[in-house]
Design a protein that fits this description.
Layout lengths: L2 E4 L6 E4 L4 E6 L4 E7 L1 H4 L11 H4 L5 E6 L5 E6 L3 E6 L4 E7 L20 E2 L2 E2 L36 E6 L5 E6 L2 E6 L17 H9 L3 H11 L2 H9 L6 H7 L2 H17 L3 H21 L1
Antiparallel strand pairs: 1-2, 2-3, 3-4, 5-6, 6-7, 7-8, 9-10, 11-12, 12-13
Helix pairs in contact: 3-4, 4-5, 6-8, 7-8
């Protein structure tokens, strides 16, 4: 068994095993209620150093992370592959398959079973041929456990992996941590999570707490780090107009530009015209010279 996941209501258990299957269990009665054969959906290509075909190699592939949707009707599965699959639990069928990367600098990205012709020689794949130092003692092949050999040998090609999957509590989006970074898929096109210089302490609740303590400059910086427009607007509009001067003078240069960009977009839609004009006026009076020289 590689990974287990409980359904949000706690009535069902999903288990992903080394044979590529996902099985579902009624844990109270210790009865298996269903299974999904997921091996065919992982679909890995042939690696450079593989001596067997992709079809044979697929027999060793499996899911390493599972996550139920909020309603418990679907399950998200990913692992040693560039695909993330969503299955319907009741019908036990594949609903949708997401390809998380098309980066060919990673290993085993080509789904076709044949090796790349450019890397083939009459002696086999170039990746499997040790170039050696060409000295009198012959070729020093870097084998595991061998004391001699080329210590500077660093031939390494990363593989695509999905290490963790999580559904949002609303069930409208999910996130995956992969070789390519953190990916977020959402049904809401308005949700664009693009943080800047993000820290572990920068959360909406912490921003509201800082705002409540009247640390306005800190709250604005944190809001820009999280980079969510509604939150930035909420924080800026919570600053009393008599504090604007102080806040503007204590803002770091980096955030001055970000704030000006935000103000420019806010003028078009906001009804607080005078308040935003005060902000723009104070910012430009205090930082205008620096901005000009840049």
């Amino acid at each position: 068994v590689l990974v287990v996941a409980f359904r949000p209501d706690g009535k069902e258990l999903a288990v992903a095993a080394l044979n590529g299957q996902i099985t579902f269990w009624d844990h109270e009665n210790a009865v298996q209620t269903g299974s999904i054969e997921g091996r065919h959906d992982l679909q890995m290509g042939r690696k450079e150093l593989d001596k067997i075909t992709a079809k044979q190699a697929a027999k060793g592939k499996s899911f390493t992370t599972l996550c139920y949707s909020a309603d418990g009707q679907s399950i998200l599965a990913g692992g040693l592959s560039k695909f993330v699959c969503i299955y319907n639990v009741k019908e036990q069928i594949l609903v949708k398959k997401f390809e998380i990367s098309c980066n060919f600098s990673l290993d085993a990205m080509e789904v076709c079973d044949h090796r790349n012709r450019r890397k083939m020689t009459e002696f086999g794949s170039m990746a499997l041929i040790d170039e050696g130092a060409g000295d009198d003692d012959g070729v020093a092949i870097p084998l595991p456990g061998v004391k001699r050999g080329d210590m500077s040998y660093r031939h390494f090609k990363p593989e695509i992996r999905v290490t963790c999957l999580r559904f949002s509590p609303t069930g409208r989006s999910w996130a995956a941590t992969t070789t390519e970074g953190l990916l977020i898929y959402s049904l809401d096109s308005g949700l664009i999570f693009d943080p800047f210089d993000l820290d572990i302490d920068v959360t909406p609740s912490n921003i509201h707490k800082t705002l409540h303590q009247k640390e306005y400059t800190m709250a604005i910086i944190m809001a820009f780090k999280l980079n969510e427009k509604k939150l930035i607007q909420e924080v800026i509009e919570a600053v009393p107009s008599n504090e604007v001067d102080v806040v503007c003078s204590s803002l770091p240069d980096l955030y001055v530009e970000k704030l000006l960009e935000f103000l420019a977009s806010a003028f078009e839609i906001s009804c607080h015209l005078e308040f935003y004009l005060t902000w723009a006026h104070k910012l430009l009076m205090l930082h205008g010279q620096k901005l000009k020289t840049r």
